[in-house]
């Protein structure tokens, strides 16, 4: 009787323990992906993720077909889909890799109980994280709320297992079950098709993930510790969407980096960033309402403003603050934004515009190709000052100074706001302060070809501090 391997955010053949177990058993195999209905917004796929998912499923389907076991696509409530597939095929085992978000945990527990009761063997495996979120705890057994001791505890634990090889052959199910056509799911945007910039930047699928990993390890990791902060340079791995959809396992990234890179700051820093991914998963696992509630309770009554025009200007990259606008254009065009700039645009939304971090998290969730329910909300709360290990609210990024420090020659801003390209370095991060003659020479007309700032940072900073003071007497 066949076994079902239920793929979720683990769209790969290599280091896929559920698939490896099924392959080793020699049983006929039905690889399955379900487009799950009924997920809450925070765990449903955003538009950019759906674009990625389409291409990733196409790639996985090709790879599985080559091994002899075509991918079965079905849409619906997952227990109903599994129940129907079991009834059709007589499958006796269901295997999957674990997931850690609140709705997914509840879904998987419910399905496991229901199928076990029907005599179906259900087995789950660790594949999406280096460490199970419940394995790492403080000496007192409580969850960590500060990154450095969390990561120290991870590094003191038994190291992550080496990654498993991809199976070289699979035993197909003699009567392949019927499957939806991928195109019928409508995952790709049509009216309008805004995904041209995503297609130009990314190669979804396991082969694309492996190519990114190789490029990073061959050319970038040694200088990563410094280069990672400069958005104008290609200094980071850009592995995040591949990790988010599980085309690359964190174990593969961890071990490949350790095997390849010379020991030093670049390697340590890269592993620690993988550690931040673990930390965010640990936070959401131990604080399941992280998407709805500030981790620090005193922020529950924070007097966020309501400002649809400001929110729209931020979303569209029309704030008049070059680094913020460049970041939002990069996001809209490619589905990704450099980490330094994510921090700056997030700080601008929350502190300069005083709009709730949840507006920002929702926009990111929909537009990022690496949208991850844990990393996204934990990072937004971190920037807003209400999350774990966050800098205090009163430390407010000055977006102009951030630009001058991390994009000193304006390469990033010129790329994503080409209307500013003609400005000299001195003014490229603050066109509103440039003399009229300089603007004219650069072909720039403020308020016409580029917006004036929608807020004055110094005024906004004082307003934010006053709001915090009123909320809970300051920090
Ligand atoms: P690298 O610098 O090459 O890092 C390697 C990997 O480590 C990344 O691919 C990622 O998986 C992980 N990582 C790195 N930094 C972080 C971090 N601060 N937190 C968690 N994991 C990290 N990352 C997401 O994967 N999904 C999100 O939805 C997401 N939302 C964010 C929202 C905000 C407001 C901020 C400030 C950060 C967010 N991040 C998110 C974290 C970070 O910006 C991205 O992981 C990183 O920019 C991805 O680029 P990279 O792959 O080149 O990273």
UniProtKB/TrEMBL annotation:
Keywords on record: Chromophore, FAD, Flavoprotein, Lyase
Gene Ontology MF terms in the entry: deoxyribodipyrimidine photo-lyase activity; DNA binding; FAD binding
Entry annotated with the keyword DNA-binding: no
Lineage top rank: taxon: Bacteria
Residue sites binding FAD per the record: 224, 236-240, 270, 370-372
Enzymatic reactions: cyclobutadipyrimidine (in DNA) = 2 pyrimidine residues (in DNA)
Entry annotated with the keyword Hydrolase: no
Photolyase/cryptochrome alpha/beta domain span: 1-130
Stated family: Belongs to the DNA photolyase family.
UniProt protein name: Deoxyribodipyrimidine photo-lyase
Organism of origin: Magnetospirillum fulvum
């Amino acid at each position: 009787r066949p076994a079902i391997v239920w793929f979720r955010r683990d769209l790969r053949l290599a280091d896929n323990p559920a698939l490896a177990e099924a392959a080793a058993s020699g049983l006929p195999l039905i690889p399955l992906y379900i487009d799950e209905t009924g997920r809450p917004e925070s765990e449903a796929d955003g538009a950019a993720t759906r674009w990625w998912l389409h291409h990733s499923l196409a790639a996985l389907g090709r790879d599985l077909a080559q091994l002899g076991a075509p991918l079965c696509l079905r849409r619906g409530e997952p227990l109903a889909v599994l129940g129907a597939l079991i009834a059709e095929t007589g499958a006796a085992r269901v295997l999957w890799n674990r997931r850690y978000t609140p709705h997914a945990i509840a879904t998987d527990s419910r399905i496991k109980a229901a199928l076990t009761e029907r005599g179906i063997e259900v087995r789950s495996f660790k594949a999406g994280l280096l460490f199970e979120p419940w394995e790492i705890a403080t000496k007192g057994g409580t969850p960590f709320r500060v990154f450095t001791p969390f990561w120290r505890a991870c590094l003191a634990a038994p190291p992550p297992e080496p990654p498993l090889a991809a199976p070289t052959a699979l035993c197909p199910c003699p009567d392949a079950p019927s499957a939806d056509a991928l195109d019928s799911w409508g995952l790709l945007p049509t009216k309008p098709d805004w995904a041209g910039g995503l297609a130009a930047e990314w190669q979804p699928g396991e082969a694309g993930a492996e190519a990114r990993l190789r490029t990073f390890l061959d050319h970038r990791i040694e200088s990563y510790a410094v280069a990672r902060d400069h958005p104008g340079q290609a200094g980071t791995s850009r592995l995040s969407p591949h990790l988010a959809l599980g085309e690359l396992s964190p174990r593969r990234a961890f071990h490949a980096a350790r095997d390849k890179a010379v020991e030093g700051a670049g390697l340590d820093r890269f592993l620690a960033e993988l550690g931040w991914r673990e930390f965010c998963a640990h936070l959401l696992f131990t604080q399941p309402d992280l998407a709805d509630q500030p981790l620090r309770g005193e922020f529950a009554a924070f007097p966020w403003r309501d400002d649809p025009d400001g929110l729209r200007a931020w979303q569209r990259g029309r704030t008049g603050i070059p680094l913020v606008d460049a970041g939002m254009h990069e996001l809209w065009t490619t589905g990704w934004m450099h980490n330094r700039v994510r921090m700056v645009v997030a700080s601008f939304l929350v502190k300069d515009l005083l709009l709730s971090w949840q507006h920002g998290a929702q926009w990111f969730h929909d537009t990022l190709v690496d949208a991850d329910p844990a990393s996204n909300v934990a990072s937004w709360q971190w920037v807003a000052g209400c999350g774990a290990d966050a800098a205090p609210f009163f430390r407010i990024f000055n977006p102009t100074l951030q630009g001058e420090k991390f994009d000193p020659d304006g390469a990033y801003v010129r790329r994503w706001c080409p209307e500013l390209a003609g400005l000299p370095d001195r003014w490229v991060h603050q066109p509103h302060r440039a003399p009229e003659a300089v603007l004219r020479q650069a072909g720039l007309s403020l308020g016409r070809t580029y917006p004036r700032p929608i807020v004055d940072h110094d005024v906004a900073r004082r307003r934010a501090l006053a709001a915090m003071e009123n909320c809970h007497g300051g920090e």
